[in-house]
Amino acid sequence: MNIGKLIRAEVLAQQGYSAEIMECRIKLDANESPYELPAPLKERLFARMQDTVLNRYPDAGAPTLRKRYGALCGVDENWVMTGNGSDELIQILCAALARPGARILIPIPTFVMYRIIGLNYGLGVTEVRLDDAFDLDLAAMLEKIAGESPALIFLSYPNSPTGNCFSEDRIRAILEASAGVVVVDEAYSNFSGKTLLPLLKQYKNLVILRTLSKVGYAALRIGFLLGAPELLQELNKVRLPYNMNALSQAAAGFFMDEKQAFSELIDRIIEERKNLYVALQKMDGIDPFPSAANFIFFGCTLNVTHVYEQLIRKGIRIKPFIFPWSSRQFIRVTVGSREENEAFIEELKRVIAK
């Protein structure tokens, strides 16, 4: 068997996403919530899960959950699809729209899974660099839309890794110019307070992605896709029938029942984001950018690989970024608990001082 002749060339040519398993005392690289659910909340969640029947398949397509989440977003359940995290929903979109010669368009830097999943399904990938303010380069995007008519455009809102929300007027211009599907990924909307949900019924080519991974449910893989029913009717042909397990469905319902408790955890992260940003601003050689997410992106005059290695030695993990088109180097740090953030700042100061 010759694997090289069996596997698609686009898959062979890429490295894929590396989710390294590494034990460290402070994990600030994956944009997870730093807070475990409070014990009383966790006990209520597990009590809810105890009622789950395990010897039967989960509700196919999660109709009850879709109805509840749709009501939360102001749409009927036929506007909602659930997924095993938003990664699976990105995969479903790419699988459904991967016609011969089809392309996706993404601004860079952004969430790497758009590119990886697109390539895995044989889609061509066009990348357009963000402008100097990390906003969309609208002229360049519109030029690519006119020339290539991409089947899919992915816009992270707020964007990862930069942490900012793109200008709404630029997103509207892209929606109006595109004959394809424009996906606005609102994975971090709980921290930005911004959403494009009001535009959903105005633009039939708009799809919005949501996730509960960033608010304390990263282990449960719960994602939502919102879009026009006629599009979802076709996407559902690609979606596996039992794609969201029964425990995750129960946990998602519990989240909606306990929104106030989860909101308190989100507010704590937003408060710590402010403190972390101020601390980074005071450091020589560090240039943090305002963030609407649960992480902070900052420029660093030191070699970021060196910074990463020095912090790893102290049991602190962050995410370095080196872009081939930029002379600057960057780091993304997840907002941790107050104790984690303070420990990170102290160790970063030591690295800078050496």
What do these coordinates show?
With 354 residues, the chain is an alpha/beta fold. It has two domains: 3-37 and 261-353, Aspartate Aminotransferase, domain 1, CATH 3.90.1150; 52-257, Type I PLP-dependent aspartate aminotransferase-like (Major domain) (Aspartate Aminotransferase, domain 2), CATH 3.40.640.10. Helix content is 42%, strand content 17%. The strands form three sheets. The chain has a seven-stranded mixed sheet, sandwiched between helices. Strand 5, helix 8 and strand 6 (181-185) form a beta-alpha-beta unit. The protein is globular and about 60 Å long. The model has no long low-confidence stretch (mean pLDDT 96).
Strand and helix layout:
Blueprint: H1 3-6, H2 9-12, E1 26-27, H3 39-49, H4 63-73, E2 80-84, H5 85-97, E3 103-108, H6 112-120, E4 124-129, H7 138-148, E5 152-156, H8 168-177, E6 181-185, H9 189-192, E7 206-211, E8 222-226, H10 229-238, H11 246-257, H12 259-281, E9 286-288, E10 295-300, H13 304-313, E11 316-317, E12 319-322, E13 329-334, H14 338-353
Parallel strand pairs: 1-11, 3-4, 3-5, 5-6, 6-7
Antiparallel strand pairs: 2-8, 7-8, 9-10, 10-13, 12-13
